[in-house]
Amino acid sequence: MILYNEATRVFHLQSHDTSYAVKITNQGHVAHLYWGRKVSGEYLDGLYQINIRPSFTPSTDLEQLEYSLDTLQQELPAYGDSDFRTPAYQFQLPNGSTVTDFRYESHEIINGKPKLDGLPSVYAEADDEAQTLLITLRDQLTNAVIVLSYTAFRDFSAITRSVQYRNEGTDVLNLNRALSMNIDMPGYNYEMLQLSGTWVRERYIHRRKLEPGMQSIESRRGSSSHVQNPFIALVSEGATEQHGDVYGVNFVYSGNFIAGVEVDPYLHSRLFMGINPFDFNWKLEAGETFQAPEVVLVHSHEGIGGMSRRFHDLYRSRLTRGEFRDKVRPILVNNWEATYFDFNEEKIEAIAQAGQELGIELFVLDDGWFGKRDNDTTSLGDWFVDRKKLPNGLESIVKKVRDLGLEFGLWFEPEMISPESELYRNHPDWCLHVDGRRRTEARNQLVLDLSREDVQNYIVETVSDVLSSAPITYVKWDMNRNMTEIGSALLPADRQRETAHRYMLGLYNVMERITTAFPHILFESCSGGGGRFDAGMLYYMPQTWTSDNSDAISRLKIQYGTSIVYPVSSMGAHVSAVPNHQVNRMTSLETRGNVALSGNFGYELDLSKFSDEEKELVKEQIELCKDIRPIVSFGDFYRLLSPFEGNETSWMFVSKDKTEAFVVFVKVLQEPNGAIGRFRLQGLDPNKSYRLEGQNGGVFAGDQLMYAGHPVPQFYGDFQSCVYRLTAI
Ligand code: DGJ
């Protein structure tokens, strides 16, 4: 899977249908040769180009004047010794200089994929599934070392990359910048696709044509954020869901990041990703190593849809872990939008009872069960049950719900502290803060300083105590604000700018310990919905609450955008009450169900208030969900019509053996006497015939459904939808 040509010093990584090639130049730099559709690889060295650029392009090698780092396509560039483009890293030396000169020292190809210390990463289950290339570079003057790491997979079309920055010298060094990845792609005829938004409007698709200069996205919020997802793709001009070259890069990290493209004067596109260097510094004492997080690279020659399915396959089976990885997820009812903070045992029982009658499998008790939390002004950090609301304790309510035949799930927000709490009274220095400065509150809360070991231990102990106190089988792990005054009481002045990353390492440590100690609990992460929907979190918790916006029409864009990278099995999707609490929209129960069925399905309303007719429909939705969730969770996902481009949205799921499919179609606004047309399905077996249940049902050939299409469904009214089921005959 990783081939090395000693004569040309070219490494060729082959991952399923992808090739990636780099070369060690005569001068000892790592040049980028190729990333794209799989090639045989014999003549890859022919892609290596050095061009004479006399004026204003420095010569890096006096023996070969045309060799310039400023024009070389590189894998991990520096600034200061002749490349004027944006660098991937910067070491600051004791003399204040940031000039370094790293050259090739050695390389190693190993079977399998080593874990990244303390960080989430894609994994290989067996050593013959993957090979890893480690290229070591050294700066002679400082004895600093950089190890570039690349993994190629046998069964997945992905390459993973990460970097270790080591200080093997005797002086203290400072890492001002430590990105995880750089690729200098040839040409700039691409569009940059990104997933941007804000709270209740996460991961909308945006595409822009590359222009010379810098285009980038970043987070400075202390989390990956609602605003920019740590993902970008370069999309060949005109690429569609089904056609064109697409290069996607996704960060396996949940904190501040930067990702972007600099189009240089010679029209290469420098694609880069890593921890945001803004407000970052890492002091590297002699002998210390800094491990930069992982980036996953996915190329597709089958359009954006092809890229998404490659990410989905990899993430479903080699990023998420634990016993729920390969299991369909329970259908749940969550009390948040039903009761908010105002509940007691009776109300909970009533919702759970109604759920049990309708076929629900899990009841989730959301915010408000602990401390004195009657609203959002108090008690975060005080993880002991509120006896006013639950006089018989957690154990009793868990038992009652379980006696009804439902599993029990519980909400936590472990990373936070309310200034109005026991915890804050006892430990006012446990939050992120800067001495003498205001402690800015958001939602009346402060952020615990997870860079501290005592805080990490407190969270592990208190959450574990609650989870051990009753048979709880699901946890919703929330996080409801961004970080301000990012400083730690325990770190010295010259390490304060490490706090944000140390927080993430602390969080990963806490999540690793808790999820390993409770392997039978299904963990769902959440950050005001999708404020931390990233591959880092999915390593610890296999699903995420996609958005606090549960309106079915808003969810079309949110779920469609999220699916660009993340598998549908990682998205929570619930039917909630109308008028919708976030956007005040009225939609039918049918449409709310049809949209939520494309995710980990559930309800977030008071089921006990439903009419008999509504209850019948809910029963049907639940039965349908139980039937189709294996293909929704583990099948191939195809986006058919985009909510970003028109009034109609459609997507479908196809089982891996192509014998079953499930299609969702939603029309946002009714058009008077509107167009009549067809829409085309995807992913079916062209040689099979399918029985199609739904509007204009019947038996049809797979090739006909894909190449000729099926009549667009007819509706009466706004926000209408329907579903189709297909079975091969
Ligand atoms: C934000 C979450 O996204 C909601 O679903 C809910 O759990 C609230 N927090 C509770 O405070």
Short description:
The protein has 12 helices and 38 strands. It has about 725 residues and is α+β, with helices and mostly antiparallel strands. It has 3 domains: about 325 residues, Beta-galactosidase, Chain A, domain 5 (Distorted Sandwich), CATH 2.70.98.60; about 300 residues, TIM Barrel, CATH 3.20.20.70; about 90 residues, Golgi alpha-mannosidase II (Immunoglobulin-like), CATH 2.60.40.1180.
Give an account of the 3D structure.
The chain has three domains: 2-318, alpha-galactosidase from lactobacil brevis (Beta-galactosidase, Chain A, domain 5), CATH 2.70.98; 332-631, Aldolase class I (TIM Barrel, Alpha-Beta Barrel); 641-728, Golgi alpha-mannosidase II (Immunoglobulin-like, Sandwich), CATH 2.60.40.1180. Helix content is 19%, strand content 32%. It contains twelve helices and 38 strands. Strands 6, 7, 8, 9, 11, 12, 14, 15, 19 and 20 form a ten-stranded antiparallel sheet that branches. Strands 21-22-23-26-27-28-29-30 form an eight-stranded parallel β-barrel, surrounded by five helices. Helix 10 (589-596) links the parallel strand 29 (571-576) and strand 30 (600-604). Helix 9 runs parallel beside helix 10 (589-596) and helix 10 (589-596) runs parallel beside helix 11 (612-634). The longest helix has 23 residues, at 612-634. The protein is globular, with a radius of gyration of 27 Å. The model has no long low-confidence stretch (mean pLDDT 97). Bound molecules: (2R,3S,4R,5S)-2-(hydroxymethyl)piperidine-3,4,5-triol. (2R,3S,4R,5S)-2-(hydroxymethyl)piperidine-3,4,5-triol (DGJ) binds at residues 336, 366-367, 411, 478, 480, 526, 528-529, 545, 548.
